[in-house]
Task: structure prediction
Amino acid sequence: GLERLCRYIARPIVSHERVSRLPDGRVRVELKRAWSDGTTHVVLSPHDFIARLVALVPPARVNQIRYFGAFAPRSKVRAQVVPQFVACVEPLQLELFGKSGPGGHGASSSAGAGPAPEYRRSWAKLLHRVFDVDALRCDRCQRTMRIVAFVTEPHAIVSILRSRGYRSVPPALHPARGPPQLRLRFGASAASELLSA
Result:
């Protein structure tokens, strides 16, 4: 199984056994399966063959995902390598007005919100998974911290930072500049050799 996996990962886009070069310079590509009209191979010029290969390369700096092989949409083994999403039987609905509806009367709302789906993880779990940092663990008592409040008022933020001994004013930004130029001392002969080269 490991050898089969390695062969699958290391295989090229086109099998080398099915590509050959004719004496006149053209490229003969043997098809994996014969077409409906009985065609078993295709003869292309070198430029056309390269153009067909280049079409398989994803464009640069474009957010585009193309799946091949076992990850292709019509692959027979896709279900074995792609995790399947199991939909919840009952929809998750939050209680907006309580069980008696808005104003204390009216139709009753659905049951309380169920557990969060498995594909949704909190930011703390994501930080722990990616960077191996437990952001909710207290450095002093090693217990799990809980969120008490969100501070959004500027004067409250300044007072908290000052009480903790941090600066409340952001550092000044310097204009972007290139690295300092390295100055080398060359003699007249070395300079003339560099210019002549």
